[in-house]
Amino acid sequence: MKHGHTHLFIPGPTNVPERIRRAMNVPMEDMRAPDFGAFTKPLFEGLKRIFKTTDSRMFMFPGSGTGAWESAITNTLNAGDKVIMSRFGQFSHLWVDMAERLGLDVHCIDVEWGAGVPVDEYARLLEADKSHSIKAVFVTQNETATGVASDVPAVRAALDAANHPALLFVDGVSSIGSIDFQMDAWGVDLAVAGSQKGFMMPAGLSMLAVSPRALEAEKTATMPRCYFSFADMMKVNDDGYFPYTPPTQLFHGLRESIAMLEEEGLENVFARHNRLAEGVRRGIAAWDGCRLCAVGPEWHSDTVSAIVVPESIDARDVIRIGYDKYRTSFGSGLTKVMGKVFRIGHLGDLNEVMCLAALSSAEMALTEAGAKVELGAGVAAAQAYYLEANQDVVNIAAE
């Protein structure tokens, strides 16, 4: 017989707070009722605040972030358009794969898995493109497979320095709502998020912010689209309705999610994620033979840490032992890093003690898998950091 609950430390879907679970526990509703728009229209405005935009149009599609990726591409670009992308993990790879399958002319820059978007190479390509044949630049703000965060404002700066009109696409699925994202200030044209990460909800709802410039591009885009059409959405969204059956229970969860994020304050949300992530990183640094997949602190993600295990260890054993013996789910290594990496997700609704539990379970699983890890070393390192960091938080609050 198993007691307690399984601890979820994958980088999404994340833990769903009880408050959001209760909010979604409602009877089915009539999505054509005359008062339905009064319920849904504030959700669009709330998302604008989370994305930090006043000018963009928000779309919500039933589906994961992948659906919003497809919508962003097919509504603004044409087959044969040249785009710049970079590949440094499984999810940036999947975005490249989608772009190629949709018929874009992809200039893909392959980067070491552990680094992020190569801004200098983007800048060189944009500066050399005097004819402006490049129609879009893609940035994965947070690569979940490797625990790497990239510099979106630096890519905007490269576009501006080259006086280049290419659209700026950002995958913010595992960053928006957890790591700072500024749609308007950073000049982002299309940004994608998903309900199952920083929004602390079940999977099934994707969010897409579209700038006025990208909406203009929609007028001349010729790619086929139907379910993910901007035009179909815009016909009814302004009144709070949808061209097909919407996920009303998820909308109730989203309303509560936005409220929770704003009650804490977005800047406090970002600071909490940074604090919790740094404690986890200190813990990992205390494990002999282990290291972060991210190759330098400039790439550290505040939502997920990917841990490279010693060569003699199969990371899949660590994951299996953690789940079977200690009822803890860690993220697996994907494709190129399978068996070499396991991941600790630290985003959404969590606190210091939860992160300490993740480190403790990981130490036991690593030890049973054959790693020479000193039990308690990572936990102690994280505890020391949290004690100090939380004292600073208390002092700031007192001021």
Which SSEs are present, and which pair or pack?
Layout: E1 7-9, H1 18-24, H2 36-51, E2 57-62, H3 65-74, E3 82-87, H4 90-101, E4 105-110, H5 119-128, E5 134-140, E6 142-143, E7 148-149, H6 152-161, E8 167-171, E9 190-194, E10 205-210, H7 212-218, H8 230-237, H9 248-264, H10 266-285, E11 291-292, E12 304-308, H11 315-326, E13 328-332, E14 341-345, H12 352-368, H13 377-398
Parallel strand pairs: 1-13, 3-4, 3-5, 5-8, 8-9
Antiparallel strand pairs: 2-10, 6-7, 9-10, 11-12, 12-14, 13-14
Description:
The protein is built from 13 helices and 14 strands. The protein has helices spanning 18-24, 36-51, 65-74, 90-101, 119-128, 152-161, 212-218, 230-237, 248-264, 266-285, 315-326, 352-368, 377-398; strands spanning 7-9, 57-62, 82-87, 105-110, 134-140, 142-143, 148-149, 167-171, 190-194, 205-210, 291-292, 304-308, 328-332, 341-345. It is globular, with a radius of gyration of 21 Å. The termini are far apart. β3, α4 and β4 (105-110) form a beta-alpha-beta unit. The strands form three sheets. A seven-stranded mixed β-sheet has the order 2-10-9-8-5-3-4, with helices on both faces. The chain has a five-stranded mixed β-sheet with strand order 1-13-14-12-11. The mean pLDDT is 96. α9 (248-264) crosses α10 and α12 packs antiparallel against α13. It is α/β, with parallel strands linked by helices. The protein has two domains: 18-263, 3-Layer(aba) Sandwich (Aspartate Aminotransferase, domain 2), CATH 3.40.640.10; 266-398, Aspartate Aminotransferase, domain 1.
